[in-house]
Design brief:
Helix content is 84%, strand content 0%. The protein is an all-alpha fold. The radius of gyration is 26 Å and the shape is rod-shaped.
Length: 201
């Protein structure tokens, strides 16, 4: 494969990554070919690998950046970006398509389960808060001071306990998602180290 076809194929394979990273990668390989003085008819895959392999490496590197960012900063946006680039790297990698589908399905199933469970716990906590709030108007129908105190206590406990549970479950969900992302990043780093050792042999 000559350099022109390589650049064209690589450009197509890198769709989906941020423009800045796309431009940096494309400029790097264009400058590499110019500096190396590679002719139009020379096969460049012997030096660099196929566009599939190069695109997979670039996406893997970007995914690792996002994994580190999501692990340090957290947040839905960072976590979703990390997961997205992990999936992009899987489908760009030179492995059998059914295997990539299976791995992506497992990742999606685990994350969907975590999200559903945490969402259910959060909704339950919100329900407790709402129940506490709804107890407040009942004070006006209370017949004795003792009943008023009981209703105020129920309202305060419901609102405070429900709010605390909302915060705890949100933090728990964030920690679990970060843990999953770290685990995927760890597996990716092991695979990368293994690939590099194999290349050096």
């Amino acid at each position: 494969m000559n350099k022109n076809r390589f650049i064209s194929e690589l450009s197509r394979k890198l769709r989906g990554i941020p423009k800045q990273d796309y431009d940096d990668a494309m400029n790097y390989y264009i400058e590499y070919f110019m500096d190396a003085g590679i002719g139009d008819d020379e096969d460049v895959t012997a030096r660099l690998g196929t566009p599939d392999e190069v695109a997979a490496r670039i996406k893997e590197e970007y995914g690792n950046k996002q994994i580190v960012k999501a692990s340090k900063e957290g947040g839905v946006k960072n976590s979703s970006k990390a997961i997205w680039y992990i999936l992009l790297g899987l489908f760009a990698a030179p492995i059998a398509f059914p295997i990539a589908i299976a791995i992506a399905a497992v990742i999606f199933a685990v994350l969907a389960t975590v999200v559903i469970v945490i969402a259910a716990l959060l909704l339950s906590s919100v329900g407790v808060v709402i129940a506490g709030i709804c107890a407040i108007p009942a004070i006006f129908w209370a017949e004795t001071g003792a009943q008023v105190m009981v209703l105020i206590g129920i309202a305060c406990v419901g609102i405070s306990f429900g709010s605390l549970m909302c915060i705890l479950f949100y933090k728990l969900g964030s920690l679990i998602v970060r843990g999953i992302i770290r685990m995927i990043g760890f597996i990716g780093s092991k695979k990368r180290a293994k690939r590099e050792r194999r290349a050096m042999q």
